Amino acid sequence: MTLGKPASPKPRSRVGGAIASIALVIVTSASATAQEVRLKAETTPTRPVHTYSIVARDPATGQLGVAVQSHWFSVGSVVPWAEAGVGAVATQSFVDPSYGKNGLDLMRGGTSAPDVLKMLLAKDPSRDVRQVAMIDARGRVAAHTGAKDIPAAGHLTGTNFSVQANLMLNETVWPAMAKAFTSAKGDLADRMMAALDAAQVAGGDIRGRQSAALIVVTGKPTGKPWSDRVFDLRVDDSAEPLKELHRLIVLQRAYNHMNAGDLAVENKDNDGALREYSAAASLVPDNLEMVYWHAVALVNMGRVDQSLPLFRRVFRADKNWLTLTPRLAKVGLLPANEQILGRILKAAD
């Protein structure tokens, strides 16, 4: 994303310019043999968003992702686009967000990422100031760095990934990203973060840093887009956006475990639930929310004795949780049993 002159966790189940760009309006009609796409160009204002980013796919899981950092406010609101079972897009430099929406629409219709990018660029008279990368659900990847993107600017594509950057301090940034991604261990989020970290070490954005974002979606769509996002994280304004993004990733992992534990409880899989709750606690041991709901789950499994030390820890840290607890019994989230409730409340003593 080219950010230039200033212009202007998953919640748990219980919790509540400068240059003109081209907006591409896509009308898609399907026939028995092929899909025909008609593109109409409209002039709209653009945002200069200079940045470095990665789009990638995990061949083992089918997960798709985008990660980005920039010296620009709220880079995550315009650069990264991803949809489970469809593809991922990073649209940056003098950014035209329609590349994101239209790119996903076309890939969803079966067009490959390279063909989609060719189609969209062909209709964009401002292509020379764009930088765009796309990857589809089959791992086909394509990228474009406009001839008039502010240097240092460039991209590298590889198997299941593309890295791209503009307005960088030097030309080593995107090669460093590619090397880091291909050599990193861990899941897709870990490997994309390794690429962002390597970019910063190599010099990064010549202006510094301000915001970052990361999206990872599942390999197969469920029909519920809100369930398909494994990570959907943004750091809109920070002196250390990558450091903060790393912290949020750990927190999101923990809440993913909590959500999985809740689901296991619903399915009467108590052992599975406790494994998930323990995994969450190991990631963020000081999170009172997780400790509390773990304790509630233990009570509902009939393991009151095991729950009491957890309740005690939470109540002593914040008395509001003690006030909350009887209210859960009134709505069926704890047993309506005065003896059990009394034991829980005494844990605060």
Commentary on this structure:
With 349 residues, the protein is of the alpha+beta class. The chain has two domains: 238 residues, Aminohydrolase, N-terminal nucleophile (Ntn) domain (Glutamine Phosphoribosylpyrophosphate, subunit 1, domain 1, 4-Layer Sandwich); 92 residues, Tetratricopeptide repeat domain (Serine Threonine Protein Phosphatase 5, Tetratricopeptide repeat, Alpha Horseshoe). It is 40% helix and 26% strand. Strands 1, 4, 5, 6, 7, 8, 9, 10, 11, 12 and 13 form an eleven-stranded antiparallel β-sheet that branches. Helix 1 crosses helix 2 and helix 3 packs antiparallel against helix 4.
Task: Note the main attributes of this structure.
349 residues, alpha+beta, Glutamine Phosphoribosylpyrophosphate, subunit 1, domain 1, Serine Threonine Protein Phosphatase 5, Tetratricopeptide repeat, 2 domains, 11-stranded antiparallel β-sheet, two-stranded antiparallel ribbon, 13 strands, 40% helix, disordered N terminus
Which residues sit in consecutive blocks of at least 5 with pLDDT less than 50? 1-45
Output the helix-strand order.
EEEEEEEHHEEEEHHEHEHHHHHH
Please tell me the CATH architecture of the largest domain by its name: 4-Layer Sandwich
Tell me, what is the CATH class of the largest domain?
Alpha Beta
- How many individual domains? 2
Average predicted local confidence, pLDDT: 88
Rg calculated over all Cα atoms: 24 Å
Alpha plus pi helix count: 11
Overall body shape: elongated
How would you characterize the largest beta sheet?
11 strands, antiparallel
Supply the helix-strand structural class.
Answer: alpha+beta
Provide the CATH topology of the largest domain. Answer: Glutamine Phosphoribosylpyrophosphate, subunit 1, domain 1
Strand runs, count: 13
